[in-house]
Amino acid sequence: MAIPLNVLVYSGPGVSINSQSFVVRTLRQFLSHRYAVIPVDPDTLRTQPWETKAALFVMPGGRDLPYTVDLNGEINSRIKKWVQDGGKYLGICSGGYYGSARCEFEPGTPLEIVGDRELAFFKGVCVGTAYPGYDYKSESGARAAEVTVDKDAFRVPRSHWRSDPENVRVYYNGGGYFATDDLLGRPSADRDATVLVRYAPDVTNPYDRQQKVRNAPAVISCAVGRGIAVLSGIHPEYAWDFLAPSSFTLAHNRQTVDLLRSHDAYRRRLFGAMLAHMKIDVNQDALEDNAGPENASRIPVKTPTFIVPARVSGVAAAATTMYSLNNAATVKGDANIAGITDMILRDGNDDIHIVNAATNNAERRVPYEYQRTVLKPSDPVPTVPWSGKKDSAKDSDEIRDQSILVLCTQSTLPGAKETSRFDMSLALNYMKEANAHTIGSWLMYSDVTGSTQTFLEKNARLQALLPNGTVNVAAIQVSGRGRGRNAWISPVGCLQFTTLLRHPNLRQAPVVMLQYLYSLAAIEAIKGQPGYEGLPLRLKWPND
Fold first, then answer.
1. What secondary structure, in 3-state letters, does 52-94 show?
2. What does the alpha-carbon distance between residue 407 and residue 412 come to, in Å, rounded to a whole number?
3. Which of 201, 329, 434, 507 is the most exposed place for a label (fewest CB within 10 A)?
4. DSSP class of residue 539?
5. Where are the alpha helices (DSSP H) in 291-367?
6. How does DSSP assign 1-18, residue by residue?
7. Can you give the pTM of this predicted structure?
8. CA distance 40 to 380
């Protein structure tokens, strides 16, 4: 039986754009080494056999009432049965309300939403908001809520927490608390609910804001048949640097950002523990203290693509290609970014920022601040819903993929700081020894890219300028696609590349044969190395 590798994030009506964007980004940070994080809409949940491939279903924040409109009935029944049969549900903020048997949100106010819910993973009531002042249209009610983590309640090793304090600051905006039996002071009738995290004693009862609610559960774990549901009133997926720039202008929000920033490592380990508690395999790099925004291990965000001619011969042709690439970029970039004056090639899929490798610093050919400014993900994250439908945001001119193409010579290749997983200089030496001719005429490399194929295939102007035989290599792909609607998971260690090959007579030589020849050539190349002759290598076409 195939191991489920899809993490499905609900993206239907009611979901907050920011909440979906942030949870997708954070889940990819924690899980993209092993799982495909895929937004799904109600149509997908209704028509596709998603249950067999899903490892985790995530309901992000937003408005819970529209969820009931689209999901009540058949879809909720399928989600509930899937969890009972061993699935895993993570509900955040409104996803926590939605996963409870009853939602009681802002009773007696114009925002009131009160009613029963079908999933009922938690058999009690989710009551909210935990703090007053919530506003759908702003962050005026947001705060860095203080919560107490019960480390012993999590099914993770004690070493997971390093030396983290029990009290942690986490982003909060509109979530509820869970009225468990211990909170209500009655003998436990629901023994399947375990409190993992509690709010500080400053929570108030939305029925009477003068009444404090002490020990209010903020995150709970619910056993559901053979499966599990973790429901959260707080947003542990929110990193401090996800917040909009406007959040830094008001004193209240500046304080929130400062608190979140100082507790970011604790917040990440809390979120990692919530996933690991559900037996989801977490990338340990995301838990490290230094996995902050300035560290590449924090999240697989795209890195620059370096390109260099692989043959020392053909100097004139190489110079012509460099000249053509430079001149193809006609849109002037932001000259104020880290002193870089770039030019942008506005292509079919990407805005490609073309820069020349710096000669004054062998460790970093492209200034980090420039990379961070250009390649930081936009909000919302451009995604392709699993249903195969186009994303209207993606089709607009407002959100475009941003890429950096760095033109290198063999004397200005990047060092280990920029290409930590691949030695371009060593690769060029091997290609010279192998007397590479057409295939491997030019070498492109990214530590992290969207998709090596998409970058060449969907950017026709760039493709037309690249020499025949250019090879595009990446250590990690974050948007690789398989057949149909499937994602292609690309953990570190995989050999993944795309070759640009212009065949002189495609009518008589079907392209499909080339992939077979490539694969056989890779097998022969490996077995041709001393000591590997007897390695039992075989080809298996992935059933993706």
1. HCEEEEEECCECHHHHHHHHCCHHHHHHHHHHHCCCEEEEECH
2. 9
3. 507
4. -
5. 315-328
6. -PPP-EEEEE-STTB-HH
7. 0.74
8. 15
